[in-house]
Amino acid sequence: MNIIQRYVVIGFLISLLSLITIGAILFYSFPFMNWASFWEVKVFDLPLILFSSCIIFLIGIITGLLSGVFEKKQWQTVYDQVTHIEQGRGLMDKQAVPELDMVQQILHKINMQMKEQAKLAQKLANEKAVDMENRVQEIISQERNRLARELHDSVSQQLFAASMLMSAITENNSELAEYQTKQLLLVEQMIQQSQLEMRALLLHLRPVALKGKTLQEGIEELLIELQHKIPMELSWKLEKFRMDKGVEDHLFRIVQESFSNSLRHSKAASLEVLLIERDQFIILRIEDDGIGFDVESEKAGSYGLQNMYDRALEIGGVMKIVSVKGQGTRLEVKVPKIDLKGEDDD
């Protein structure tokens, strides 16, 4: 039973109780009245007592209906406000009715607390990123560069040479049996897959820090480098705006992890990257047209996916992944844009 129905029933019961009470008072106050006259006197062809009863019931039902509509409107206002807060859009301009003024004040406090928590999370992430960079970044960067250089100069080059050799064998040797050709093609595909795995590994070995570059410059540099190394169509739109360093470092690591996953697993032909600022939110979106996957099952068993979710949470943001098998995957990170430097100046 919804609110309106409940109030209509309450109004009907109150009317019934009122009618019984009034009848009892009249009966005991005027015991010698000619009660038959109530049936003889008619209004609109209805006995007076029946007409009066209908009027009382009608007033009660209408009162209950109006009260129910008003109550439902109050709760709808609360629901709309809570929904806006849950979606990170803050309180609506619409004012609550006076009876819900206290609830409105509490919702305002909750909204302010959520903003302060997001602000604190970003500030802590920013301080943590700066501190970690000062203490260990140079050592990590040197080691990553050394490993990446050795792998590129040895294993990656050997895989490339093996791939070229297998292509030459299958194209130029017409005396091979059909099953031998199929086996050689299979080996060639395995080598090409190993090359993609190696490139994904090299992505992980790249230094996490942007080294003085903005996030937009770091992503563009990474995409241009990948354009010359992978058989995938790349496109991007990177709007220029300022971010705090902690946010940039976390988003750049999410980009690296996402690119690595696409190279190793998606079998995509194209990859699109979008970085924009809208309504005081930083939005990062990465989309491919690969084979897709089951997000829930993969999230439970994938350290990489969980790591990306955690990084988005650390800077007060949220990350959503939508993937449809056979149609591709879209990753979107939405982070509130808070100017920590401006606050420090104040």
Number-wise, the strands total: 7
Report the end-to-end length measured between terminal Cα atoms.
54 Å
Low-confidence runs of at least 5 consecutive residues? none
* Strand neighbour order, sheet with most strands: 3-4-5-7-6
Q: What's the tally of helices?
A: 10
Beta percentage is 5-15%
Tell me the Rg in angstroms. Answer: 35 Å
What structural class do the secondary elements suggest? Answer: alpha+beta
Q: What is the makeup of the main sheet? A: 5 strands, mixed
- What gross morphology would you assign? elongated
SSE series: HHEEHHHHEHEEHHEEH
Query: What level of helicity do the residues show?
Result: 55-70%
Report the average pLDDT across residues.
Answer: 75
Account of the protein in words:
There is one protein chain. The protein is an alpha+beta fold. The chain is about 65% helix and about 10% strand. The two termini are about 55 Å apart. The model has no long low-confidence stretch (mean pLDDT about 75).
Task: Sum this structure up briefly.
The protein has helices at residues 3-29, 37-40, 48-86, 101-172, 178-205, 215-227, 245-266, 295-301, 303-314, 340-345; strands at residues 42-43, 46-47, 233-238, 270-278, 281-288, 318-324, 328-336. The chain has 346 residues and is α+β, with helices and mostly antiparallel strands. The protein has a 5-stranded mixed sheet. A two-stranded antiparallel ribbon has the order 1-2.
Notable features of this structure?
346 residues; 10 helices; alpha+beta; two-stranded antiparallel sheet; elongated; 66% helix; 7 strands
